[in-house]
Amino acid sequence: MKIASFNINGVNGRLSVLLRWLESGCPDIVCLQELKSPDERFPIREIERAGYGAIWHGQKSWNGVAILARGKTPIETRRGLPGYLDDSHSRYIEAAARGILVGCLYLPNGNPAPGPKFDYKLRWFERLEAYAAELLKAHVSVALVGDYNVMPTELDVYAPERWCDDALFRPEVREAYQRLLDQGWTDALRALHPGERIYTFWKYFRNAFARDSGLRIDHFLLSPALADRLVAAEVDRKTRSWEKSSDHAPVWIEITED
């Protein structure tokens, strides 16, 4: 079974890219981030014609997350993280699909740091940590998938010295990510590619993609029950080179059928 994550950076503006990638990659489950679309403008008809059912949590111009499943609509189990009832950002949606529980997330960027946006990012991380711990107690197959806006180590950023004060690389954020791993979650891409420089995001300017000046900020965190089934994890770099593509590349894993 193939599970993928793709920060699409505007689902309507890059719909042709999404449909092309779905056809070529044939993932079974897909997590999308940065829809930048209100719920009523999510392109469900086009996605269904491509063979996928979907649930989504949209927001006008910003944020937005969705889960797609090939041949069947995922069963929604949650939208929004617990712990902050007034949070208006569309950043988390969760569903049961093909026998696993999938949480699709788009963690706040947090810049500039320090400041209110960075404080919000840390609070969101705290809520994610608390909820992730509850999920582990259920002892089921869970994947927390998406754009974490975190480079966990120096290996995950092309020039670490340039990012020391950035909200994606500050110690507080990297420590929060490590606390998730310490709970018992497995970073799928890093587990299968230890010591290897792998990026999932390249800025649009300064020819960053051609120079491979990238960041690894899109992650799969797997519960122990699911990590035991992990057999592959890769980045679809070629998709980043397509015309009108997102500044992120899709990331995918393969797991054995239960």
UniProtKB/TrEMBL annotation:
Residues 4-248 form the Endonuclease/exonuclease/phosphatase domain. It is an enzyme of class 3 (hydrolase). SUPFAM superfamilies: DNase I-like. PROSITE patterns: AP_NUCLEASE_F1_1 (PS00726), AP_NUCLEASE_F1_4 (PS51435). The keyword Magnesium applies. InterPro entries: AP_endonuc_1 (IPR004808), AP_endonuclease_F1_BS (IPR020847), Endo/exonu/phosph_ase_sf (IPR036691), Endo/exonuclease/phosphatase (IPR005135), ExoIII-like (IPR037493). The keyword Magnesium applies. Keywords: Hydrolase, Magnesium, Metal-binding. One of its GO terms (molecular function) is double-stranded DNA 3'-5' DNA exonuclease activity. Its cofactor is Mg(2+). Its EC number is 3.1.11.2. PANTHER family: EXODEOXYRIBONUCLEASE III. Belongs to the DNA repair enzymes AP/ExoA family. This is Exodeoxyribonuclease III.
